[in-house]
Amino acid sequence: MVTIEDYKNGETEWCPGCGNFNILEAVKRSLVDLGKKPHEVLMVSGIGQSGKLPHYLKCNTFNSLHGRTLPPATGAKVANPELTVIAVGGDGDSYGEGGNHFIHAIRRNPDITLIAHDNQIYGLTKGQASPTSEIGMKTKVQTHGVLHTPFNPLAVAISLDCPFVARGFAGDVEHLSSLISQAISHKGFSLVDILQPCVTFNKLNTYKWYHDRVYKMDDDGHDPANRMAAFEKALEWGDRIPTGVFYKRDSEPFESKLDVLKSGPLTAKQYDSAKLDSVFENFS
Amino acid sequence: MISGGIIIVDINIKIGGEAGQGIQTIGSVLSRTFVRDGFYVYGNQFYLSRVRGGHNYFHIRVSDHPVYTLNEKIDILVALDKQTIPDHIEEVKEGFVLTDESTVGDNADAKIVSVPFTEISKDVSGKKLFSNTVAVGAVFGLLCYDLATLKKFLSETFKSKGDEVVEKNIKAAEAGYDYVRNDKFEGICNYNLNPQPTNRRILINGNDSVGVGALAAGVQFLSAYPMTPSTGVMTRVASHADDFNAVVEQAEDEIAAINMAIGASFAGVRAMTTTSGGGFCLMTEGLGLSGITETPIVIFLGQRPGPATGLPTMTEQGDLNFVLHAAQGEFPRCVLAPRTAKDAFYQTIRAFNIAEKYQIPVLILSDQHLADGLFTYERFDTSGLKINRHLLEDRAVGSDYQRYAITKSGLSPRAIPGQNGALVVADSDEHNEAGHIDQTTDNRIRMNEKRLRKVDGLTDEMQMPAIHGIDGADVSLIGWGSSYGPLAEAVDILNHDEVSINLIHFSDIYPLSHNAASILEGLNTTICVENNATGQFARLLRAELGFEVSKKMLRYDGLPFTPQSVIRELKGMEVI
Questions:
Q1: Chains A & B: contacts with CB separation below 8 Å
Q2: Are residues B301 and B324 located together in one domain of the fold?
Q3: Any idea what DSSP says for residue B403?
Q4: How far apart are CA B380 and CA A277, in angstroms?
Q5: What is the pLDDT of residues B423-437, one digit of tens each?
Q6: Are residues B229 and B336 in the same domain?
């Protein structure tokens, strides 16, 4: 039996009240609920406060570079599909620096879950705008307020036919944990974008601000199989902000399509040097 | 080793034409026929960055001794476009130009043998499709060369397309041959070629050798973004990936390519990426990630002249400084620069073994000259092939496993994720032995020193430069990487003429062997020969060994050295 204790690890370095605590709690609960043993799990993270999350868990961890969470996660998943690979990144990590990888990971569709801590601000560099910051948000860099249209990760993912697209709220651990569990269990690339208040730098999108707005789509009878409806929900932002599973469909993950992986992980294959003879035939 | 003497049979054929005209096909059919008949062929190509049009050429050198470079004189020039004749006729001193009416133009010359390739093709097959085979037949006609091996080769090559295609190809070759022998060139045969068929020899270029070397080393994951002149490695590995339980993934960019490979390596398979200088610019961040996380990776870099897009299809040794210093901070790395295609095969295998033993990035530094250069060898001997993964066995891992355990050698035992009982924690931040972030100064010093200690063992493994030519020469050429062929042959020619010269040639570039300094100190006049404008290797010798070369010979026009160009320059320098 796996328990929460199995995943406990060390002191955190997050600000008191940070949404990351709840995300960490939700991740632990999901892994325990799914019965995953720590050595079966690989958490790959980027840089930022979100990137530290795997350090506060007991499991295999690869803490990579800013924005580069998905490529090493993909390589690891292909090498050993038996690993449960979870990528963790912030909004800068996942949608700014790693925006190209985000798009192409969805196209490639490895069986990886991306948990994106989306706090609409750059916390570790002390409060600049992020790709998801709202127009008009003033910072020490964006002195006239943010000018750019916010990146909409859910709409982008749905437009690319990402097999599982969800949004959670760090203020609701139970719901978030359920979304993460569903995402990990779903075959193919899954996105869980998490609304996460930054208590230090984001004075706009606070817990209260979110509590006043978020609602669960399930309660409204949203059908996640309906891609057009999912897209409409993804565009909803303002007085009401939907959470839950926006879209899901069955898919065949990238690594399942690779013939060489059908008989087991690459890491378990034996090397056969006898095949070299036939390679040399090509040159004679 | 070059032959060490003077080459007796030395026939040089150049095929010029536009991209898309089948220059490569003609070159390949000719080369492979000669190789099967026991000759040594060296081939290389000059091409422009376009799919069709432009002026390209393919150069083949045929010898009865191993050859590793081109010769500037041409015996037979096959002109498929008008540009070929004015561009190359000066190189044809005593030979012939084979062409058809459409490309002769105003170039009336006794050397020109006009053969209506297309018309002959239509006559024998009803189609102009076989005109390149007519040209191949005509080349053999000029050489009075037996067609038996060619016919066999054509039969095998076109077998899958049916008997009719085979037959038409053979007829086309015979018709081209007869046309030259009977009507234009009767009774003149200056070439003494004595075929001795063999099936043990291969004709292989540098890129293919790296690809096959990677397969031989057990590569199981290759991610790359295609970039000239490195793409051939990716293509070669992809074409055999299924047989070798390997996955080749075309990444969205070079950043993804190297990071995916690092992820695969971390998870437990041998992984590599391939690129050229521009792509490597994007990879430098990942290079550092490999360095600090101590994740092995092999990076193949086919150099071409830069900066930025530079000359995409030409050659240069201009990225040495870059690979030595790429990425921020200090961490161990290894740079190997193969001399020839055969060296590329064994160096690639070594690259994987070194990468895993020392848990570092290893760079294989090649260039367009070696990437596209075709070499003839006996099949590579793989009997001594050794693969040591240096991974911790399941029974050796425990719950107290620490990925970055401090050791005297700097090498920490390497487990992989998924092994029961051990958790593997790797971090791009400075980390403690367990792999978790640790920003304390004591830890920083311990970890940095642990990583850098690996250089001691690595340096012990580095090989000495190859010494070619006479001992104690008055003049020593110093070279590295793909320049081996032209430099060694220049030395052979000069030694034959009793000039006191030799070559000291490096393939293990960084770190330099402990003993390299002792060899260099004993030399007289030293000339560092490099395909770049600033003498980057000379600078490395000065920086690492405190050794100052006497002179530099630098070529940076996008073309490789030839033995003749080296000899001309040496005379110009008045050192010989």
A1: 192
A2: yes
A3: T
A4: 10
A5: 999 999 999 999 999
A6: yes
